[in-house]
Each structure stands twice: as structure tokens, then as C-alpha cells.
Amino acid sequence: MISKIADRHLSRQACIYIRQSTMGQVRFNQESTERQYNLASKAQSLGWNPEQIRILDRDLGQSGARIANREDFKTLVSDVAMGQVGAIFSLEASRLARSNQDWHRLLELCAITNTLVIDEDGCYDPAEFNDGLVLGMKGTFAQAELHIIRARLHGGKLNKANKGELRFPLPVGFVFDDDKIALDPDQEVQGAVRTVFELFKRESTAYAVVQRFQNLGLRFPRRSYGGAWDGKLLWGRLTHSRVLGILANPSYAGTYVFGRYQSCKQVGPNGEICTQSRRMPQEDWRVVIRDHHPGYISWDQFLANRGRLAANRTNDEVLAGPAREGLCLLQGLLICGTCGRRLGVRYTGNGGVYPIYQCIWKHREALARHACLTVPSKPLDDAIAERLLTAVTPLTIKLALEALTSLEERDKAIAAQWHRRIERARYDADLAERRYESVDPSNRLIASTLEQRWNDAMRRLLELQAELAKFESQQLRTVTADQKRQILQLARDFPRLWTASTTAARDRKRILRLLIRDITVLKSPEPKLLWLQIRWQGGATETIEVRRRPNRAEAVRYPEAFVAKIRTLAERYDDKEIVARLNGEGLTSSTGKPFTVSMIRWLRYKHRIPAPSIPAGTLAVSQVRARYGVSLWVVHYWIERQAERAICNHHRRQCGSTPAKMGRKLGSSSPIIPNANCMRCIMPGASGCQACASLLHPVSGFPPVAPVSVRRSRSAIGPEWLASAA
Fold first, then answer.
1. What is the DSSP string of 668-685?
2. What is the mean pLDDT of residues 609-620?
3. How many Å is the Cα radius of gyration of the chain?
4. Residue 538 belongs to what H/E stretch?
5. CA geometry: angle at 249 spanning 243 and 255, to 5°?
6. Cα 531 to chain center, whole Å?
7. pLDDT number for residue 642
8. How far is CA 477 from the centre of its chain?
């Protein structure tokens, strides 16, 4: 050993590397720790000065399987690479590293920088082939030893777990009674645990359970592990994570489970290999022993709780999510026919009383400028509710039960065939076992072949039993006669139950989800028409049409048939007569009100419906003006003077009424044509103004005007009066 130590080694540091794998070893295996510290004396005896000896003991309690969290080992590797270390002292190779990667990396650096490795067996120079070979084998043995130790420990744990005897920290509500698991004798603890399961059965969400606990002022216990409070119960606020842990723990169903979590190695963000625990699916649990100890719920209720939790997820675009308290009946069930995403619910209007279904995924991801689909909730909810009430009838339920009975018979026949296959496989396994036992053990050529056949037969038997159990749990249908009777009674009471005021919106949603899996909404090329593709829980599909409610403008617009009817009536009757006929038939306007003249006028104006044609011998105002060469005012004056006598002063500003309300019926006509533009001509009892006589007297070429008979009407182009000569 001394022959390999040269002056170049003594001129550099001697590093004493000290490590224990766990803090328990540091606390209880103090002899090993003391032996490692004594290596400093050995370094002094080999020629290093005390000030050159450096002790690296910050890795006490750290495993040598990985370099993570081993600060002193990293320091040692860096100092060796810089040529500052002459020798490394360690009790054995496994103290430095139990990973071949870390071990050979250190040896390679030691060979380059002429650094010695010294343990209890001797002094090694990694630069020499033989010494490097011995050190490499020691590192390999150290890693293999770690694997053997781990395999022994894991095998022992698995063996005890198969018997249900492996102990692990129990959840709240359980205690160890000698070697058995029992319910906590504290009634307050039991009541708190049972309350969690009862509230979840009623509320269906973990958040609702937490909220109910807070509203009721309840507390929940947790057991402390380690420290001064080891094993004691601490009462505090119930959190959402605690509720999820309780609902997902099979121990509360009286089931012993081993293998719910499994450690796996992953590459971290900084490139280091780290070990993490991951939750395993239920079919990959290593040990499952039902009815192992008393529980708070049954196994079926535990599976139902897990299924409900999985359905309550909101971070998945496929799952429907939990049934909420909102007004929308189809919340979480609608799928957009454009992008395939779930439609969300949005409450609009003053106070949020107008819910709509909306798909905004493309708009949210900046893939479209507008939402894929936006529809009011009421027409869709009403259509699905009506379809549900027509689907759930005693007749349909009876037919479904008959179909279920036939499926039960078919499943029983298939299960019987499975049992026959298992019996045949069991016979083959027993036959292989008898053949193996009957052969001479010393004849290994035949015995090994028969042993292999026996193992294959047993493996085949186990595979068939596992397949049968899977078939019975997933496909076998079994409904008792009492359950069928209850289902038929429920079908008779279903319409009354659905429309009852005591049925909450959440309960209706739960009922709907028992029958319908999802609904795809598609837009029809026809405006205001939607297609709803319903997928029932049994796998059947159907499509129904839903016509959306028209907007206000379309709702108050008269249909073409009604406009055609008005057009036909306008050919023979005036507006008042049309109103009388429509109201007599009991018809109302588009807003539900009785018809008025103004409504008919607007309809004729909007749709360009002409007024009734002028009767024979009747002239329009414009025709009268053209015939006699007077102004429109004069013609209107003639018409009004034949209707009512006017009450007016000589000056216009003193008139007590408008010209349309002036003078009704003046008697026989005057020999002089009055001028309507002159106030003296229209005075009551006046026979005309002499100043106007020269303009309107028959001398001017116009004959005297005889009295006219008035017929009031409306023309097609405006409020022009029609006058007919007497």
C-alpha cells in the first residue's frame, strides 16, 4: 500500500468521505459512523498532515443510488477533476456510490489526475489496469448488492401483503387492534367519516361536501405522525383534497389493497434522474382482499363513488361533468357538431335569467372570429324533456325489460360456456400435475418437459378465470323480479315526478344522465332549424328536429297567406269594411290585438296594395282640378262646404278650426264660385266675394258649378278626396 503512495499524492489533500444511507442508520448504527471517522487516523499514519485531511460528512442520511442531494460527493468529484485530491478514503466502495454511472465516472477522473482510492482492503491506483479492474468489480458488486437488498425487502413486503398482514399508516377512522384493523372507537371520529360519505351520496360532488361542512360548522380529524404529536388526532377544517382522498381510499370499503402507488424513474428538468410515485389503475393493484376488515361503505358504493368522481371532472372536453344547480337541463351533455367540443352554459339578461348554450372553443383559441354555436336553452330543453317523457312509458319499459330478460338468458348461456372452458382447463392442469408426479424425478429430460406442460396448463387456467371475472363484471346482466316491478312502477309515476315542483333541477339532470349519454347539436341549412342527435345510454341513437324561436321582427311579420287575403279584400272594400270583416271572423293582429284602420293602411302601404278602383261617374280631386281649372284648395273647399257649415271669422288667424273642419253644408250653390283663398268668400251666409267674381265667374269661360255630392275615400297614393258630380 505504501509503495503506491508517492510525494505527489502527499502534497495534495486526503478526502475522507463519510455516508450513511438513512437517518435511522445515522441514529442507531453509530459504530459504522465512528469507523468512518477513524479513517482520518489512517490517513495520518500513511503520511498526510492533519491540515491536509478533509472530512466530507454532509451526505449522512443520503442514499448512494443517485447523485441527487449528495453535495459532498459532487464537491469530491469536482476537486478530483481539478487535481486537488491525492487520495480518497472510504470504508468500502459502496460508501462512495452504488450507481455504476457515478462510480466509473469518479474512477475515470481519478485515473486522469493520479488520485488514489484507499479502503480497508488496500490502496488502488485507477490508472493501473489491475487496480481499475478490481475497483470496477467492486462498484458492480455494490450496485448488485443494492438490487439484492431491494428485492429481498420487496419480496418480504409482498409476501406479507398477500396475507393482508403488511402494516401501513391507517386512514382516519381506523386503528390497529393487536394485529387486526378495526374501526376507531371514538364515536365522533366515526360520525365525521360517515357524514362525508352520506353528504357525497346526497350532493354528488366533493366541493359540495366541503361547503356543507363549512356551513354546518363541522370539523374533521387528521392523525399526526412523528414528533411530539405522534398518533394523536388533530381536529380542523375539512379540505377538498381530504375529501378526494377519503372517497378514493378502498380501506373505507373494508378492502385491503397493496400497490395503489408505484415508484418510477423520470428525467427531471435539469437532466437528473428522479424517482416519483404514480397512481396505478385499479386493474393493476397487486393485492386486493375484500372484506378484510370492517368498513364504512360497501365495495359497490366505493366503485360508484369513484365513477361519480371521474364523471365530475371538468378538465376534460369529453366528460359531461357533474350535475349543477342551474336552470339548463342539458348542461354538460351537448356536443358541438362543428368542432366536437362540449357546449358551455352562459347566463345572459338582467339578473342572468336567460341561459344559452354556447361553444366558444375556436373563438377562445383564436381559430374563429365568432362562436361555433349559440342557441337559447329553452327550445332544446323542452324538446329533450318532451322526448324523454314519451320514451319513459310503461310499455317501453316493459319492452326494455323483456329485451333485458332475453339478454340475461344469452349471458347465462355464455357464462355457462365459460365455466365449461374453465372445467376443461382445470382437468388439463390436474392431468399435467398427475403426469408430472408419476414420472421418476431423476429422469430430468422427461420431468422438465412435464413440468413445463404443467406450468402452461396452470397459466392457461388462471387466464381463463381472469377473463371470466372480467366478463361477469362488465357484461353479465342480472335484474331481479322485485327490481323489475319497481322499474315498472317508476315508469307509471315518471311524468308526475318530472313535472313536480319539488323535483330540483339537479335531480332532473341526474335522471336525464341515467338515460342519455350525450347530444350532438347540428345546424340545418334551413334557418332557425337545429338537429339534435341523441345517443342513449344503451347505445341507440336518434335525431330530432328543433325549430328555434323566431326573432321579434319575424314573429310580428304577417304571413304571405294573410297578405294575399288583404289584397283580395282591398279590391272590393275600403279599410273600414276590411277591419269589420276581419274582426268579425275573430282574427287578430300579429301581436294579438284587434285590427284597426291604421293597421290595414300600414299593410297596404307596406305591401303596395292599391285601394278599390274608382266607381263609374266619379272623379278624383286631381281630375276635378284639371276639368275646371281650379286649385286643389278650391276642390277641397267645395267638398267641405257640402258637409258642414264653418264657424270662422273674416281673418284666418281668428279661425277656431282648421280648414278641414270648416263649414259643413251651406245649402244650395251660389251663382258665383267662391274662392277658397279668400276669407270673405267662405264667410257663413256669404254668396261670394265680388273681388273674386272676375276670376271665378263663368264669364272667365267656366260654367257655374252645381252642388256636388261627397264620397270620402282614400286613393292608392295618398289622402286625396274623391268627388262625384251630382
1. SPPSSPPPTT-TTTTSTT
2. 75
3. 50
4. none
5. 145
6. 22
7. 58
8. 30
Q: What is the per-residue pLDDT across 307-335, written as a single tens digit (0 to 9) for each?
A: 888 877 766 555 566 666 677 888 888 88
Q: Tell me, what's the pLDDT at 281?
A: 87
Sign of CA dihedral 599, 600, 602, 607: positive
Report the percent of the chain where pLDDT is more than 90. 11
- CB under 8 Å to 40, separation ≥6 — which residues? 16, 50, 53, 55, 89
What is the tens place of the pLDDT at every residue in 514-558?
Answer: 888 888 998 888 888 889 998 888 788 889 888 888 777 887 888
Q: How far apart, in whole angstroms, are the C-alpha atoms of residue 627 and residue 639?
A: 16
Which residues are annotated as catalytic? 21
Q: DSSP 3-state assignment of 369?
A: coil
Give residue for cell 448504527.
29
> Could you say which DSSP state residue 242 is in?
H
> For residues 402 and 480, what is the distance between their CA atoms, to the nearest angstrom?
13
d(CA 258, CA 263): 13
510-522 pLDDT, tens digit per residue, is 888 888 888 899 8
Q: Tell me the residue type at 124.
A: Y
The C-alpha cell at 30 is 453509530
Band (pLDDT 50/70/90 cuts) for residue 150 is: confident
Bridge pairing between strands 13-17 and 85-89? parallel
CA neighbor of 281 nearest in space, from 302, 261, 265? 261
Provide the phi-psi class of 620: left if phi over 0, else alpha when psi is between -120 and 50, else beta: beta
How would residue 665 be classed by pLDDT, with cut points 50, 70 and 90? very low
Neighbours of 640 (CB within 10 A): 23
Cβ density class 77-111: b for 16+ within 10 Å, e for less: bebbbeeebbbbbbbebbbbbbbeebbbbbbebbb
- Say how many C-beta atoms besides its own lie within 10 A of residue 372's C-beta: 21
> What is the pLDDT, as a whole number, of residue 316?
58
Burial 411-431 (b: 16+ CB within 10 A, else e): beeeeeebeeebeebbebbee
The full 3-state SS of 160-223, as one line of letters, equals: HHHCCCCCCCCCCCEEEECCEEEECCCHHHHHHHHHHHHHHHHHCCHHHHHHHHHHHCCCEEEE
CA 650 to CA 705: how far, in whole Å? 24
- Do 601 and 575 touch, CB atoms closer than 8 A? yes
Q: Please tell me the predicted confidence (pLDDT) of residue 659.
A: 35
Instruction: For 548, list phi and psi in degrees, rounded to 5.
Output: -70, 155
Residues 6+ apart with CB under 8 A from 313: 319, 321
Question: CA 80: distance to chain centroid?
Answer: 57
Find all residues with CB under 8 Å of 268, minimum gap 6, and list them: 274
Domains of the chain: 2-151 (3.40.50.1390), 174-255+290-311 (3.90.1750.20), 318-549 (no CATH), 554-606 (no CATH), 619-725 (no CATH)
pLDDT bin (cut points 50, 70, 90) of residue 672 is: very low
pTM of the model: 0.51
CB 616, CB 636: distance < 8 Å: no
Residue type, 327: L
Q: Which residue has the higher pLDDT, 298 or 621?
A: 298
* HEC profile of 583-597: HHCCCCCCCCCCCCH
Find, among 621, 676, 618, the residue nearest to 646 by Cα: 676
